[in-house]
Amino acid sequence: MKLLEQLAPVSEVSHRSGPRDRVVLSSRVRLARNLPHIPFPGHAKRGDRVKAYEQLMPIIQGLAPLSGGLAEPMEKLSALDKQLLVERHLVSREHAAKGVGSGFVLNREESLCVMVNEEDHLRMQALRVGLQLGEAWTAIDAIDTALQQKVELAYSRSYGFLTACPTNLGTGIRVSAMLHLPGLVLAEQVGQIIQAVGKLGLAVRGLYGEGTEALGNLFQVSNQMTLGESEPEIVEKLNKVILQIIEHEDNARKSLLAKKPRWVFNHVGRAYGILCNAHTISSKETLNLLSLLWLGMDAGLIPADARPLVNELFLVTQPAHLQCLFSQQEKMASEERDVLRSDVLRDRLAGLARPDHRRVASPGLDDSGTPPTS
Amino acid sequence: MECHVCKQREATVHLTQIVDDDVRSLDLCEACAKQKGVSDPMGFSLADIFKAGAGEEPAKEPVPRPAAAAEVKCPRCGLGHAEFKKTGRLGCSDCYEAFGEVLDAMLKGMHKGIRHTGKVPGLGMPASKDAVGVSAGTASAKAVEPTDGPEADIERLSSELVAAVAREDFEKAAELRDILRAARAAAKTTLSSKGTEA
Q: What single DSSP character describes residue A108?
């Protein structure tokens, strides 16, 4: 059976919603854990790696919240399958490059995913839609506690949980949220926010984590320090910072719509125009333009019930999803995919009415509004 | 602008690196950049290029490391100090003992503290578990209805342990941890495990 058929249907994924999901697309908490004395995956010889894998896979699959889910060794997956998992943010790009002696376990709801032999023996993560960092922490904490009943983990009283990279040492926790910040990007304020967040010891990254660029106005904010603070302290710190970023984003959008409504409408209208009429389009351009449709929806230019459609397009226009869903070919050149992508976009957006600024009550367009304060 | 290394082709790759407040910049053509491994951010430092390159702007000598540190090897997995320096990754859990001294200095610049204050295996969180945001320092136990039986014992032991950890009495804490582990194991059959959502 094909991997895509074993994952949640795209239509279901695109209907998921959560608190504050206009700005916070998803929340994630991951824990890094290792077996004592056995070399970490990056340093292990094949034999040790396979040994750790064979010990851990059945234990992980046996944990109640993960039982009945999907468990696969990485070497069984095609490059395309691995890319599907990356596009769904279930495994990291690093993990997708792995083969023999690595694998993953995913629960049915796709809210928990454990990578075996990524950089550490175990990378366990809980995912939630919207701003739900506390919930994600509680879920992964429970998995971790259950795991510790079954297997001894590498732990030192002074250093805490021991990890391959000292940057993850101690709690082994990485708390992160995927933020959609078109307002701050258009207002050219996102640089200041990134700087301010950096000063707090947090990291800002692009769509696919470490070393990736910000596409579609999406930014991942996460903690960097893992030692000397407790997990709840780290979760709460992130939560506070993200609430502040949401506020800045909301203000930026309001201010733009009040001061330069035509300029915002122009962005959204052109995005719609290109997406509906292009005959070849890259995934990068698509992500950037779909981001503007989201913005248009939040601003009221596009009916809110189109959200699942835009969510779906966001996922299915990414290379692996596009190819698996709409092509019979095993291999496609990116130029071929660009044409296919535009076909899918024109087809799926045919039913979406064009953005209508008359739906938006903006003080910049009539005399009734009060002048905006910045 | 010509390439710093070959001095023939046009420089198209421009680099700036800050090492210990020392700013160095370098302009390379694509061929030389590739040859020097500039596309691989892990394996490259400007200092190496300056050293191997045209010889001008002599690079600062790296701070000499104590000979002892250079020879440290993990007795378990054989990872050497030099390799650790290069990759930034340790080889196994025992490396933390082998490289302890080198690590502490490194961890200071990396983390908020150099001692773990979070979750402890077999014990869970030092602070009350359900309250996200409660700092680990609050050692006072949650007010619980006094109940008989193993649950009350575990509750009491937990708070004693939290207090021990808070005052950094790790020997006592370890002792309590072992007692608690035994108590938990004994109570496991009677306690219903907390279900997790999803």
A: T
Q: Dihedral sign, CA of A223, A229, A232, A238? A: negative
- Of A43, A145, A236, which is closest to B77 when you measure between CB atoms? A43
To the nearest whole Å, the CA of A317 is away from the closest chain B CA by 28
Here the ipTM equals: 0.85
- Does the pTM of the predicted model rise above 0.90? no
Q: Reduced to 3 states, what is the DSSP secondary structure of residue A299?
A: helix
Which residues in chain A have their CB less than 8 angstroms from residue B77's CB?
A: 39, 43
Which of A311, A226, A247, A312 shows the shortest CA–CA distance to A29? A226
Q: Where are the domains of chain A?
A: 3-254, 260-359
CB contact under 8 A, B198 and A36: no
Pick the residue of A29, A159, A223 with the most B CBs within 10 A to test the interface with B by mutation.
Answer: A159
Q: Mind listing the pLDDT tens digit of every residue in chain A (374 residues)? A: 689 999 999 999 999 999 999 999 999 999 999 999 999 999 999 999 999 999 999 999 999 999 899 999 999 999 999 999 999 999 999 999 999 999 999 999 999 999 999 999 999 999 999 999 999 999 999 999 999 999 999 999 999 999 999 999 999 999 999 999 999 999 999 989 999 999 999 999 877 655 556 789 999 999 999 999 999 999 999 999 999 999 999 999 999 999 999 999 999 999 999 999 999 999 999 999 999 999 999 999 999 999 999 999 999 999 999 999 999 888 899 999 999 999 999 999 999 999 999 888 655 554 433 444 44
Question: Which CATH number describes the domain made up of A3-254?
Answer: 3.30.590.10
Closest CA–CA distance from residue B103 to any residue of chain A (Å): 8
